[in-house]
Queue: 4 jobs
Job 1
Amino acid sequence: MLTYEFIQRALLASTVTAVIAGVLSCWLVLIGWSLMGDAVSHAVLPGVVISYILGWPFAVGALIAALLAVSLVGTVREKTTLKGDTAIGVVFTALFALGLVLISVTPAGTNLQEILFGNLLGISQDALVQVIIFGVVAFAVMVTLRRDITAWAFDPAHARAVGLHTGRIRWAVMICLALVVVASMQAVGVILVVALLITPGATAYLLTRRISRMLVISPLVAWVSSVAGIWLSYHFDVSAGGTIILFQAGVFMMVYLFAPREGLVTAPLLQRRRAARALTVAVPAPDGTR
């Protein structure tokens, strides 16, 4: 399988998207921006359709639309008293609806279907280059600002107290989100990008509370899921993007059930052992000792 060039391109693209989406996923989970990831991933649709109409690279229109989406959300949140989820909902639905309208008046094309649902095994050399460029830029920004982003994600008030410009950090995370969405949509499509942005971080969060470990576990889960998804999709002739997300969801389910600290199966067993140990210590022995 690895001798085929299209498989090599798919593995490279999935590796880049897995790393950047996995890293960003940790902070999105901590901040509570799952809905933001969903909004941006769907808001790129009108930009993609306009790029298709004008003959531009899809990534150009998608990036412009993503940046427009995060700008509108940020502006509405800062200039009004509306809550964040309300601002996200208004902007997300409006831009996604605009994309649907543009699709309805655009001659049907397989390229638009690929953007919606992904075509990792058919990714072109040009699209791969775009994935790498956007991925490298996003990764560089996240690595440079990792300490500031972590401080803001855990406690925005404390971050402001120690002199961090939380407004700039928020905008940096939004721009990284836009870059990651544009890069990842080439692999799994607009509709499934949100799973790539949330599930790895959620899986890592169930396994550890240390951000340093999360930043390793999350991209690792995303990468293993990508490789396994490509292998399964190749052998069973099914959607690569959908298989990657399903495998990723399967990993999350296993962790949800058997995570050492809060697994649905293991947590009650651990609590019983602690209770039994505490009871053993508390009950006096026959000679009066404990």
Job 2
Amino acid sequence: MRQQLLDITEIGPPSLDNFISSGNEEVLYTLRNLVAGNQQDRFYYLWGKTGSGKSHLLQAVADAFSEQQCNSRYIDCNQDEPNFNPGTDCIVIDNVERLDDAAQIRLFNLYNHLRDNKHGIFLASGTKPPAQLDLRQDLTTRLGWGLVYQVHELTDEKKIEVMQDYAIRCGFELPLEICHYLLKYEQRNLSSLIRLVHALDQLSLTRQRPITLPLLRELL
């Protein structure tokens, strides 16, 4: 298990290879088949708490299709002004619960266009199952038509295990109190936690000081 964790916690862009699937084996298997061209469906919806890894998976799928020379687009509704282009081979829409009324209508029309034309992959995510989203009912109905998966957040114990294994690979031991502090006060998604551990290691080397809670507080 340790070697497996070490292999997939490198700092880098999100990919299906560096997503830790603990509790999410089925959705990862489905998405691997999707990018390999063995998809069961063309419409997918992932839901789960903030920090569960939904954005990681969506960006990974979008990038995988782009690497295959497909016209793929990732849209984060928290940051982007949604422009739903019906000519996209794979459209990936993160945080759909953030869509305003006008954007919801455009997404509804896009979904129908893709379904009628029998071309294009549609992958979306939100913090709740489709039926519980505070969106237009006709849109939430569409989002529930395809394959729907819950993405489960890693347990704190698993996150600590991954952080400490990453530290060992970098050549140091990460005190348990550092892990608990990060989980309590910082963003809890795994990629952010690993980046903070990496930054802490770099600061320790620069300052020639051991990794301690006071050093972490300086970093933060």
Job 3
Amino acid sequence: MAIEGLTPKQIVEKLDQYIIGQEKAKRAVAVALRNRLRRIHLSEDIRDEVAPKNILMIGPTGSGKTEIARRLAKLVNAPFIKVEATKYTEVGYVGRDVESMIRDLMAVGFNNVKAEMEEQMKESSLPKVEEKILDLLLPGTEKKQKQSKNSESMQMPENAFILPEQVSSEKTESSQDSTREKFRQMLREGKLEDREVEVTIRRQPRGPSMEIIAGGSLDDLQSGMQDLQNILTGRNLKKKMVTVREARKILQAETLDSMIDPDKVADIAKQRVEQSGIVFIDEIDKIATKNQNSSGQVSREGVQRDILPIVEGSKVNTKWGVVDTTHILFIAAGAFSMSAPSDLIPELQGRFPLRVELESLTKNEFKRILLEPKNALTKQYTALLETEGLKIEFSDDAIDRMSFLAEDVNSRSENIGARRLHTIMEKVLEDASFSADEHSGETLTIDAKFVDEKLRGVVTDVDLSRYIL
């Protein structure tokens, strides 16, 4: 979906289709996104001076932090990755180095651009795929076809003497051409889809073989060396018997791969990553150092200092070239239940000038989450069980009851936000999901009484003072 022309208000409206509440957070990301578009239209002398306003989201788990960033990336069709700050360690410790987040982002960008180009070339690849399938169905005809074309290109003298062997050969080739055309017609009519053919497939590398140049880990190095050895020895090729239907998918992928210029893909992807890439750093509060005596403080602060230059703007080596991170948008998020944003090192705090606090969800938000979004839970479960022929209907009092339970349990125990609704819905529909195939054609109405009955085993009293969902 093109973001060109969407105002911040329209961006918020798009996010409203999937995310309930959190208006401040949605407005902040909408403005940040619009500013990226505005920057593109600036003159070159000022464009490079306008840096993205990175955002720090603060709020409990399940309040929508990750969903906002994920939907934002889909909205703009931009390269996007979500990483967890706890997965990274400073150089010298076991774990991933922080630069790998940019290499991963570049990989996403490359794959996105490649997929777009493949879609554009899909139609033009069909004739080539068809010829390859016919070569598999009629082994040996490819070579003779080429010989036939070569002979046709040679001009024969009018009085040339034609040997009997040549006449026989021409008849044989004519017969093979006729057979090939018959098979072509059958192939187009779908009569050969289940016939088996032998294809040679190339094993996919287990890891980024060239990542060793870009500063990958020891595992990347070992995997890359193994892939290189397989290529040199030919062990990356494998023959396999598959149906024509499956062979078409394999051959189309190979054909499209050969038609696309990887250097062109890399150039476009690099530009997209540098100008519109989004990195979502989750659990950034887990690397905050609350006090000088906290265990692992050196490692946590080290990770922060390693992340700092990436967010500030630096050049990272990838197997597709050097990527400049200056204009990549970084969105960090954390619950900060055991620490505060001020516990991050001052330099890193300064690189996230926009701070948005997400509020805990209430009964009203839970009710809207169950009903309004395009991917609402009630719609998901209804669609799932309808595949078995069981129709589910939710009454208004059932929606109210589940919304109340979600808010109540979150207030009494660990607040896990909207994820509580998943737990409740699973419990309520557990029996129906298990035996849905036995009730095909029936309609099951979910009301408040039904909800209480299904949750009776985990509620110890009417006041829900102890609830273990």
Job 4
Amino acid sequence: MSFKLHSLVSSEGSRKEKHRKGRGHAAGKGKQAGKGQSGQKKRGSVRPGFEGGQNPLFRRLPKIGFNNINKIEYQIVSLAKLEQNYNDGDKVSLESLFEKRLVRRKTMPVKLLASGSLTKKLTIEVNSVSTTAKEVVEKLGGTVNLV
């Protein structure tokens, strides 16, 4: 006996027939078809948050706050951190800050702030810098380049 695609038959009891709802009492799921008593949810779906025409919760509560989608969030690096982690004459780049774990993400911009003190001459490459921090670095003979 050879097997051909047209002659394949599944074995007895391996496949269960789909239950057809709403096809009469004798079918087992007749009359209300497992949807309970009459009502809006039986006839169709109700959108999320709908409260039967009552003013819904999301409209009753006050709207507060403001979300600025154009705001740029910076990772902050202080002069004190640079003093601890770099030697005199070193180059401070976004990659070196990430390697020394002074910033968490490579993709997020970095801003240099003037908290703490600095005594070393450094070449710094960051996305943004405060005016005071720039003055302190340049006073020591270092340079600040914006990337």
